[in-house]
Design a protein that fits this description.
Elements (H helix, E strand, L loop, with lengths): L3 E9 L8 E9 L2 E6 L9 E4 L3 E5 L1 E6 L9 H7 L2 H17 L2 E6 L5 H10 L7 E4 L4 E2 L10 E2 L3 H14 L3 E5 L1 E2 L15 E2 L3 H13 L3 E5 L3 H10 L3 E4 L5 H10 L2 E4 L2 H9 L7 H12 L5 H9 L3 E3 L12 H11 L6 H7 L2 H7 L16 E5 L14 E4 L2 E5 L2 E2 L1 H4 L9
Parallel strand pairs: 1-4, 1-5, 6-7, 7-8, 9-10, 11-14, 14-15, 15-16, 16-17
Antiparallel strand pairs: 1-2, 2-3, 5-18, 12-13, 18-19, 19-20, 20-21
Bound molecules: zinc ion.
Length: 421
């Protein structure tokens, strides 16, 4: 028998059931849940915690993050001028904040290779941090969106080679920039050219095929119905941001099992905190107008109603978008009616996100046999989602890493991670 932790009398949101279950005892041995019971357990345990009045739920996911960015005004400038060392420091700070927000898994979508180093540092206990799935630099056309921070590749042979190179470097998934403004948007924000599909269908299909051969999922940054059509037909596993998909897009996504990763919370944060990073009053006023539109997330609402699985992301690192934006993202899903009730949004941030990441066999729910990544909060997030904002405790693989929304100091230098999921 290994190290045992007994949690008593919790209200459990398990990530599967449609209702919270009260009076649950949970037994953790080493890094896994070994018993989740509606009856009180009288097991021998090294640590016993009474969770009366508290809610226990799976560790949250943020499926779209940029760990090496810190939400400054200009993402391009930040990527262009930050040294690798500064990027590493920012990633270290962001990973700690993620744990303190109850997030135990993130998908880092570049721009740097730094996501891979951050992943390994957290996994090996060098710094506190969530489980990181890292894409490394995004794949883009020559001169395409994010060319300044991605890998430029053109033609089927080149794209297959790029997939193999990314696999060789040890990425967990591949991000492709499927729509761009010709001439490279973002680095040239004044560009007025329209966003268009970046790759040919055969190029996209070659990339996806090669990635899948290598066991890597592919996610597409895509902003137009044409782009969604191309990437989904080519077999990408998910699309980022969501945009405004057409009815045909949604039908195709349902048939193919494609996920959407939402990123709508950032503008709420910019409206509230944009002045702190120097956004102009005019820009903040424009953002306020945008978020006041009740139909702002209509694309996501229609996708959700059609049954397309939606996993939560934030685009953390974008202007005024820190790790805690994940809770704002959850709030926005309810506010704009993407999710009809808190239980749905919690599932989308846990079990659905785990399916997107392909690690649902091991994480994303409170179930016997799963890795014991979980959050304990005061109150009831089903009554008020904001109750998630300051977690009482966060556990990773059965180890407590956060108390009262702060990483536990004695564990901050080194703690053994038994799980290698
Ligand atoms: Zn992003």
């Amino acid at each position: 028998m290994g190290h045992r932790l007994l949690l008593q009398n919790a209200r459990v949101i398990d990530g599967v059931s449609n209702e919270a279950i009260s009076g649950v005892d949970v037994l953790v041995e080493n890094d896994r849940f070994i018993e989740v019971s509606r009856h009180s357990l009288s097991a021998d345990a090294d640590i016993v915690l009474d969770l009366t009045g508290k809610t226990l739920l799976p560790g949250l996911f943020d499926c779209h993050v940029h760990l090496a960015w810190d939400g400054k005004k200009d993402v391009g400038e930040q990527s262009g001028y930050d040294s690798r060392e500064l990027g590493a420091i920012k990633a270290t700070v962001n990973m700690r904040k993620y744990l303190e927000t109850g997030v135990t898994t993130v998908r880092d979508l570049g721009v740097h290779w730094l996501g891979l180093e951050a992943r390994d540092a957290a996994r090996n206990g060098v710094v506190p941090g969530p489980r990181v799935l890292a894409s490394g630099p995004p794949v883009t056309t020559t001169g395409g969106h994010c060319w300044w921070c991605g890998i430029e590749a053109d033609g089927e042979v080149d794209l297959r080679k790029t997939a193999r190179y990314l696999a060789k470097r040890g990425v967990d998934l591949v991000k492709v920039i499927a729509t761009s403004q010709p001439g490279g948007s973002s680095a040239f924000p004044s560009s007025t050219k329209t966003i268009q599909t970046a790759f040919t269908f055969d190029e996209m299909a070659a990339l996806v095929d090669e990635c899948h051969n290598l066991g890597l999922k592919v996610t597409a940054h895509v902003g137009t119905p044409d782009g969604i059509d191309q990437t989904v037909r080519a077999g990408v596993d998910s699309i980022e941001h969501g945009g405004v998909p057409s009815d045909e897009n949604l039908e195709l996504m349902l048939a193919k099992g494609t996920f959407i990763v939402s990123t709508i919370g950032g503008s709420w944060m910019s409206a509230d905190f944009g002045h702190l990073i120097g956004l102009s009053d005019e820009l903040i006023a424009m953002i306020r107008e945008k978020i006041a539109d009740p139909n702002r997330a209509i694309g996501l609402v229609r996708a959700a109603q059609a049954g397309v699985p939606i996993a939560l992301g934030t685009d953390q690192g974008s202007p005024a978008t820190p790790p805690e934006t994940i809770i704002t993202e959850m709030f926005c899903h309810l506010h704009y009616k993407v999710a009809p009730e808190p239980m749905v949004v919690i599932k989308n941030a846990t079990s659905v996100a785990a399916r997107l990441c392909g690690i649902d066999r091991d994480v994303g729910t409170i179930e016997k046999g799963k890795v014991a990544d979980f959050v304990v909060v005061d109150g009831d997030p089903l009554a008020d989602i904001e109750d998630l904002r300051m977690p009482k405790m966060v556990f990773q693989g059965g180890c407590q890493v956060v108390q009262d929304a702060a990483v536990i100091p004695e564990r901050s230098l080194y703690y053994p991670r038994k799980s290698r999921v």
